[in-house]
């Protein structure tokens, strides 16, 4: 998997949010001390840990964090303005259970999160890399899913969503091929999960509907 570093120019509001909150709420993955991240100390409490990979501009993430105050919510994203915008949104919602990491999620998982330490991993609308020659850059591959699964507690959840049919089929095939996971909705048509009512509908998702692309959810759990 690889990602393309987009421009880092921030709005005035985003820069202010960054200056106000990043030192307390954020860290570069490359700046983390060697070894496991002490999540409980960072949040000041022990609680279920949710990791969202690719929080984008934070539209969905901020609402999910606010709706789940009982969880310690980690968002990992490479795009600095997106993280700043997420902090702005979180500030408006007065959430206190969010921490942010900037960098490669797979490095975070491999080097800084212990096996069986996560209650849920969410990957919503990852970059589809639609051209066939770019499919190898997609996040959801056998190796990454095996790594994610190893970090989930038994019974922990991997929740995926995409509006690209080809990627949805790849996700389903990869997750079904991972022995550490089982499909909670294996008995549903195609193995797809019903769309959870609690996942906010974003402008991005509405546009996908307008363009005739079906949204697919997958919910697997660690065995």
Structure keywords:
single chain; 223 residues; alpha/beta; Rossmann fold; 8-stranded mixed sheet; 8 helices; 8 strands; disordered N terminus
Q: In a few lines, what is going on in this structure?
A:
The protein is of the alpha/beta class and 223 residues long. The protein has one domain: Vaccinia Virus protein VP39 (Rossmann fold), CATH 3.40.50.
Layout of helices and strands:
Blueprint: H1 12-25, E1 26-28, H2 39-43, E2 49-53, H3 59-67, E3 72-77, H4 80-93, E4 98-102, H5 105-112, E5 118-124, H6 142-151, E6 152-162, H7 165-176, E7 181-183, H8 203-210, E8 216-222
Parallel strand pairs: 1-4, 2-3, 2-5, 3-4, 5-6
Antiparallel strand pairs: 6-8, 7-8
Helix pairs in contact: 1-4, 3-4
What is the number of beta strands?
8
* CATH architecture descriptor text: 3-Layer(aba) Sandwich
Whole-Å distance between the termini? 25 Å
In angstroms, what is the radius of gyration? 17 Å
Question: What characteristic shape results from the CA principal axes?
Answer: globular
Count up the helices. 8
Which sheet architecture does the biggest sheet show? 8 strands, mixed
- Share of helix, binned: 25-40%
CATH superfamily: Vaccinia Virus protein VP39
Mean model confidence by pLDDT: 95
**Secondary-structure class:** alpha/beta
Give the uncertain stretches in residue-range form.
1-5
Number of separate structural domains = 1
Name the strands of the widest sheet in spatial order.
Answer: 1-4-3-2-5-6-8-7
Oligomeric grouping of the chains: single chain
CATH topology: Rossmann fold
Sketch the topology as an H/E string, one letter per element: HEHEHEHEHEHEHEHE
- What percentage of amino acids are in beta strands? 15-25%
- Quickly name the level 1 CATH class: Alpha Beta
């Amino acid at each position: 998997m690889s990602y393309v570093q987009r421009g880092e120019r921030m709005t005035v509001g985003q820069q202010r949010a960054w200056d106000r909150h990043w030192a307390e709420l954020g860290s570069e993955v490359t700046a983390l001390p060697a070894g496991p991240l002490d999540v409980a100390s960072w949040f000041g409490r022990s609680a279920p840990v949710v990791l969202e990979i690719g929080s984008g501009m934070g539209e969905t993430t901020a609402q999910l964090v606010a709706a789940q105050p009982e969880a310690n919510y980690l968002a990992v994203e490479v795009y600095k303005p997106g993280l700043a915008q997420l902090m702005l949104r979180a500030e408006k919602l007065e959430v206190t259970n969010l921490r942010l990491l900037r960098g490669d999620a797979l490095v975070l998982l491999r080097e800084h999160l212990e096996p069986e330490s996560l209650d849920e991993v969410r990957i919503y609308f990852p970059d589809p890399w639609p051209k066939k020659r770019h499919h190898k850059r997609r996040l959801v591959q056998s190796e990454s899913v095996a790594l994610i699964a190893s970090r989930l507690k038994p019974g922990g959840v991997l929740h995926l969503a995409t509006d690209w049919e080809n990627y949805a089929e790849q996700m389903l095939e990869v997750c079904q091929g991972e022995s550490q996971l089982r499909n909670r909705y294996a008995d549903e048509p195609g193995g797809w999960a019903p769309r959870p009512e609690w996942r906010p509908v974003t402008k991005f998702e509405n546009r996908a509907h307008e363009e005739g692309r079906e949204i697919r959810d997958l919910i697997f759990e660690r065995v």
